[in-house]
Structure formats: structure tokens, C-alpha cells
Specification:
Radius of gyration: 18 Å
Largest sheet: none
Order of helices and strands: HHHHHHHHHH
Number of helices: 10
Number of strands: 0
Number of domains: 1
Distance between the termini: 39 Å
Length: about 270
């Protein structure tokens, strides 16, 4: 994989890798948490780790600050590094964890769970603005944005599993396909053999950067002072994740219906 910005790995790469790994872990755990208190505990622990890391590693904080303000190319590289680390449950695991649900009810459950996870992250990170001192404001924006993207891409991947249309290939191939699906807000079109190579100026790179710019704007808004930040962050993130899940689900359902009609089959309940 290459950086969308086409830039060499610099001294802040260690911090970038740490951010990607933390965001992938949070996206995985908070998406699968079943209780509100568990989601709050996870997001609070993640927020504390991000703040601590920003204080301790001044170079890392400066790298995140430069990455945030110079554009979305740096963030796109973090997304590419994060997504293969996000745990995706296959159809068998999902059926075992949600026994007795129809395909449509299972898709509903996943979308609802992801929307609640996004709300938890947005509310927790927005509340950081109430602190007397923010050690590295852009670090909070980057970590929240990465976690939200991880939650949404995990949702996209698991919806593909539910409808029996997982992306082909290895972990890196599938990660690239799901990043493309997130960028285009539709089901997977094709996976690139050998993984995702985001070349600066390519159509996918441009679309990904536009989508990231929108996400960064919502993340920054959720860090507005006091009540506005926490409340708006929760609502905006939940709404956006739910909308994305419904768009992907509608596309997958349409494809499943077309496939079933072409083979003279009935869709499973």
C-alpha cells in the first residue's frame, strides 16, 4: 500500500501506526459491545490513551497536527493502515451471535449497533472539549475520525457477509475493496489483486479524500465547547453511520434480488 499523498514515511510514522492500531481496536470493540455502559467504558479508555500519548510524545502530537492541517492525504494513509486491522465477523459468526434473526433483522441489528457505537465515540470525544487544557487538539480529531471510519467500514464488511457477498481475496484485498465501498457509498465492485494502491490523483484517491474532508469537518464540530460538542457529536455521528449503513444495505439487497431473480430463486428471510 502507498500513501495517497505519495509521501515517504517520516519520523511520525511510529505515531501514525499507533493511532491506526488504537482506532482499529476501538472500532472493533465498541461495535461489538452490547451494552451502553460497555461502549462508554471503551471510548473513555481510548480517549485517555489518546490524551496521554499526545502529552508524552510531543513529536507524535506535532506529526498529527501537521497531518491534520496539511490535508487529507496523511489521514487517508492512516485509514489504509487501519482497515486491515479491524476484525470482521463472517456470516457464520454473525448468525451464532444473533441466533434466530432473519437476514433483514440481522442487517437492522448491525446498523443499529454501529450507529450506537458512532454516537458513543462522538459523545465521548466531544466531551474532551470541556477539559481545561487540550494537549493536542488535532490528535483528538484524527483519533475520533479514524475510529468512526473503522466502525463504518466494519459495518460495511459485515453487511456484505450477511447478504452472502463478501469481498474476495486476502485481508488486504478485502480491506481495499471495503475502503472503496465506503468512499463510493455502495457495495463492493471489485477487489484489487495485491491490495489497495492509492495513487495520488486517481479517482478513488480523490473520492476518498473528499469523504475524509467531510468526516474531518464533522469531527471538528463535535469538539465544540461543552454541551454542543458532546451532544452534537453523538447525534451527527449516529445519523451519518445509520444513513451509510442503509445505503449499503439497499445496494446489497438490490443485488441479491437481481441475483435471485436471474436464477429463479427466493431470497432467504
Amino acid at each position: 500500500m502507498t500513501d495517497v499523498a505519495g509521501e515517504p514515511r517520516g519520523p511520525g510514522q511510529e505515531t501514525a501506526d499507533s493511532l491506526a492500531a488504537q482506532a482499529a481496536e476501538l472500532a472493533t470493540e465498541v461495535s461489538e459491545a452490547r451494552q451502553p455502559q460497555e461502549r462508554r467504558r471503551l471510548t473513555a479508555a481510548f480517549a485517555a490513551a489518546a490524551r496521554s500519548g499526545a502529552r508524552v510524545t510531543g513529536r507524535g502530537a506535532r506529526a498529527a497536527r501537521r497531518g491534520t492541517f496539511k490535508g487529507t492525504g496523511w489521514l487517508a494513509g492512516l485509514v489504509v493502515a487501519m482497515v486491515p486491522r479491524v476484525r470482521v465477523r463472517n456470516q457464520e459468526a454473525l448468525r451464532a451471535q444473533f441466533p434466530g434473526l432473519s437476514t433483514e433483522d440481522l442487517a437492522d441489528a448491525l446498523i443499529t449497533g454501529a450507529a450506537r457505537a458512532s454516537a458513543a465515540v462522538g459523545g465521548a470525544v466531544g466531551a474532551w472539549a470541556a477539559l481545561p487544557v487540550l494537549p493536542a487538539f488535532p490528535v483528538e480529531i484524527v483519533t475520533e475520525t479514524l475510529a468512526l471510519i473503522g466502525i463504518e467500514i466494519k459495518l460495511i464488511a459485515e453487511l456484505h457477509e450477511v447478504y452472502g457477498m463478501p469481498a474476495p481475496g486476502n485481508v488486504v484485498d478485502r480491506a481495499g475493496a471495503y475502503i472503496g465501498a465506503w468512499s463510493h457509498r455502495r457495495g463492493v465492485l471489485a477487489a484489487s489483486p495485491g491490495g489497495l494502491i492509492l495513487v495520488a490523483g486517481s479517482p478513488l484517491a480523490r473520492r476518498l479524500r473528499r469523504r475524509l474532508a467531510g468526516r474531518l469537518g464533522r469531527s471538528a464540530f463535535s469538539l465544540a465547547p461543552l454541551f454542543t460538542g458532546a451532544a452534537a457529536g453523538a447525534v451527527l455521528n449516529s445519523r451519518e453511520t445509520r444513513r451509510l449503513g442503509q445505503q449499503i444495505r439497499a445496494d446489497l439487497r438490490r443485488r441479491a434480488e437481481l441475483g435471485a431473480a436471474g436464477h429463479g430463486l427466493e431470497l432467504p428471510g
